Each structure stands twice: as C-alpha cells, then as structure tokens.
Amino acid sequence: MKTITNLWYGCIDPYRSIRLKPLLKRVFCSGEKASVNFLMIAVILLAGCEKQSFETSDVITGEDAMTYTATLPGYTLVWEDNFCGKTLDSTRWKYRTDCKFQSCQRPDNVVVNDDTLKILLEEENYQGKPFTGGGIITKQPNSYGYYEISAKLDDGYGWHQSFWAIGKSGFDDPDPIYADSTGARIEIDCFEHYGDFPNTKFRYGAIDWSTLRGSSVYMGSIGEGTYEATSDLSQDFHTYGFEYSPDYINYFLDGELLKTIDIRDAPQHDVYLWITSIASETNATGDGAMYVDYIRAYEISPSQYHVRKVEFLQYLDSLRGPQQSNGTDLWMEAEDFADINNWKVEKDIDRTVVLKGFTGFDATRNSTDLKATTGVVVDEPGVYRLWVRSRDFDTQQGARKFKMIVNGEVSPVEFGTHGEVGYEWQSGGEFTLDAGVNVLEIYDSSQYFARCDRILLTTDTSFEPERIGGFANTSHVDP
After folding, report:
1. Residue 241 confidence (pLDDT) above 50
2. Which of 62, 125, 158, 467 could be cross-linked to 321 through a Cys-Cys bond (beta carbons 3.0 to 4.6 Å apart)?
3. What dihedral angle (degrees, nearest 10) is formed by the CA atoms of 265, 268, 273, 279?
4. Which residues form the signal peptide (predicted)?
C-alpha cells in the first residue's frame, strides 16, 4: 500500500497543485494505476519537495491511494469523501432544503461530476425567492476531531459560502438536536464568506447559542475573527480546517494556524457538518458555483491529545492571567449567585457576562431590593482576602459602584471605583469564613449602572489576580 504524506508544512500539498490535481484525482477516483516514480518526479519538479516526502511502493491504486497521514500531529484519518463519480453519497449526506435570505436551497443545485462537488448558484424564482442555492449536511453527528475541506469559492457577488458545524441536522429536520446537558448548543464556523465580502476575505469563529440567565439573549460570538488572504480565494482550491477539542478550537487556512479560541466555558456536544452556499444579497450574481474537492475527518487518541493540548492551554491560560494562588481559591461568577433579585444578567464588552444593577436612583427602594445573595460552600475555614472584578468608565469615574457584604460584614471598599476604563480587580479586605455555607451579598449602593463580573476569595493574602483569572470552582446554594 502506498501512503502519500501530507506536505502542507514542507513546501506544497501536491494534491492541491493546479497541475497535479487532475492527474492525482483521476488516479484516486478511478483506481487507475500510476507510477509512483512519475508522481514523485512531478511533485519534485513542480514544488521543489524532497524525495523522502513519499514512502516507497510500486503503484498507487484506488482506495490505497487515498490513505493519508494526519495533517495535524497525533491525528489519524477516520473518514473522507473525495466526491468521486457522478452522484452524492446518500448514505453520508442529506441536502439543505430551506429558504433563507434571498434564496431557497434545492437538491438539484448540488452536483457531483468531474470528481468534484459543485453547489450551483442560480438566479431563478423559486418559492418566492429570486435565487436558488444549495448545500449538504452529514447524516451522522461528529465528535471531537480535525475536519478539513478543500474548496474554491464562487467569484461572483452576493453569496454566503461556508463550512460550519452545529448540533442539528437541518432547518427542515431539526431532530435529533445535539446539545450539552443544559440544552445549550455551540456553532463552529470554519469559514463564512459573506455575500458582500471581497474574494480575499472570510470570517471564522464560534457562537454560543445558550441564553443568559433570566432572558432570551444569546451568549453569542466566541473568538470571532476575520481573515484577509493575499490571493483571490475564487481562483484556486484552498484548505479550510478546524480542530474541535474539549478545551479549544483551532482554525486553519492552507495548514496555517489562524487562531485558537477557548471553549472550556462553552457548550460542547456532537455536531453535524454543513457545506453550503446561499444568496444573501438582493443583487447577487447568478449562474455561479462553489467547488469542493474533498472533505476529511480525523481523530486523536486521548493519550495523544493529552500531549498535544499542552501548548494551546498554556497560551489560553496566559490570556486569562494567574489562575492559582499558593492558598485556597474560591473563584465565582457574579451571575451564578443563587438569588440575583433585581440585578440583571447582561453581556457586556468583550463577551463579559456580568450582573448589572439598577439604571436609576430611587430613594423608595429598601436594602432588600438592592441585594443579590448567594450561599457559598467552604471546605477550608480561615481568613480569606476578597477581590472583586468590576467595571469603571472614563466619564463619571467611580459613580457606578456597589458594595460586598460577607457574612453580614460590609467591605470597606466600594467596587467600580478603580479608575481604569473597563474591568479590573479591586481588593476588598479580609474576612473570616467558616466551614459550610457562608453568605455573600452584592449591594447596589449607587443604583446607577453598577456592574459586577467576578469574585475571588483566597487564603493567600499576598495574591493579586489579573485579567480574567481562574475558572469558577465554587458551589452556590440558597443561603
């Protein structure tokens, strides 16, 4: 058996080479025999790659020719579709058939020929829409792994072209819906080329579709990014990939890592893969096509992932700041308080989820109206230093303030008065906590847009938190 190794990181992937692609695809899809020596010479001449990029064998044939080494260290190929022949693999795929924006999506617009998937973009009136697009969706959900497609975008205007993943298998057939234990869902956008984007630009990121406590507002974007390529993405095939793990998502273009985002606090579940193109603009260009050469799915063993994740977690943790003192740390999110009362959960700058107090002063409110309350379970009794992360502004600095009350003792500091624009930590003094349930209260002393993000109680009285800090690790109960 002959294995073609991945050359993404060396010089060029021969399978994406404009001149080699027709020959290699014909060999792979038809099962025709081709001389390995010929292919090696061709790659060396065209790309300048070293001969040892290939293992030795006499011929490449059929399925044997489609055995690839992993594109990322530790990953192995699980399944792939090279769109050989003239029909879509109905055991793996279903069609996208909804109507959205300016187009309805039709199965007739999904074509497999010339060993390539084509999603046709047509200007035609259909079910009240002026355009028709199309797309395919995996019938079976996929778990953690690395997923990659080779695609060439349409060169026209007005079409939203994308490769993405979500926990449902279609707008027309939403069951089964995959979500986490709370019912929350994540959407992973490997690339989205918006209809009004130039052909060098696309967006990537993830969306947390869980709702804020007590509202219908979604958590929203996680680590969204926009990429500007140096070449026209409609003139040649490019590989777009994402690595979905329990801790992070990595985004790749042509083997280059674009960004790592933290999903340790986001919903996680199996996902369906979507490859779609729909009209998003009223003046979209008709009679075009999005081309897909292949899609590949890889998985990694737990032991290999344990090694691979280290560098990415170190990077993500560096963004959060110190997460562990030399003592016992009780990290809390304000929105997790057992009784938030009249405080509201709000999504603020940089996707920060906070508790926000009243927006106008009212002297008739009593102290009970102004408090959010929770019971915190403490295992290790002792003296703890209080830290609170709050927001201040460049106008009316210190006016949007609140107090903390720990076991009935009021903090000597009012928070939201640190004088920096944005969210910062302030020390609030030391308190004695007993083993068992201790009562914390956030008191809206200003009744004027006070915002509380996070709270830390630590026995290491010399520790100073920075940036976001550690993950919430405290149990909340009714006091």
Report:
1. yes
2. 467
3. -40
4. none
For residue 273, count other CB atoms closer than 10 A to its CB: 22
pLDDT one-digit tens code per residue, 397-427: 999 999 999 999 999 999 999 999 999 999 9
Model confidence at 372, pLDDT cuts 50, 70, 90, reads: very high
Q: Strands 129-138 and 103-105: what pairing? A: parallel
Q: Residue holding tokens 């008709």?
A: 286
| Nearest residue to 354 via CA among 366, 362, 342, 346 | 346
Q: Please give the residue that has the higher pLDDT: either 62 or 400.
A: 400
The secondary structure of residue 112, as a DSSP letter, is E
Q: Residue range 240-267: average pLDDT?
A: 96
Mean of the per-residue pLDDT values of the chain: 88
Q: List all residues 6 or more positions away from 398 whose beta carbon is below 8 Å from its beta carbon.
A: 392, 416, 417, 419
Q: Does residue 323 lie in a domain region?
A: no
Do 163 and 187 touch, CB atoms closer than 8 A?
A: no
pLDDT for 313 beyond 60:
yes
pLDDT for the residue 176: 72
Q: What is the pTM of this model?
A: 0.83
pLDDT at 22: 57
Indicate if 149 and 218 belong to the same structural domain: yes
**94's tokens:** 């279903």
Residue type, 151: A
Name the DSSP letter for residue 264.
T
Query: Rounded distance, CA 340 to CA 360, Å?
Result: 18
Helix axes 21-30, 36-47, angle to 10 degrees: 150
Asked if residue 322 belongs to a domain, the reply is no
Residue 153 neighbours by CB under 8 Å, 6+ apart: 161, 193, 199, 233, 234, 290
Interior/surface letters 452-475, b for 16+ CB within 10 angstroms, e for the rest:
bbbbbbbbeeebebeebbbebebb
Q: Which of 350, 345, 331, 359 is nearest to 452 (CA)?
A: 345
Got the DSSP string for 65-79? Answer: GG-B--SSTTEEEEE
Bridge-partner residues for 182, per DSSP? none
Shared domain check, 438 and 336:
yes
Distance (Å, rounded) from C-alpha 129 to C-alpha 469? 49
CATH code for the domain of 473: 2.60.120.260
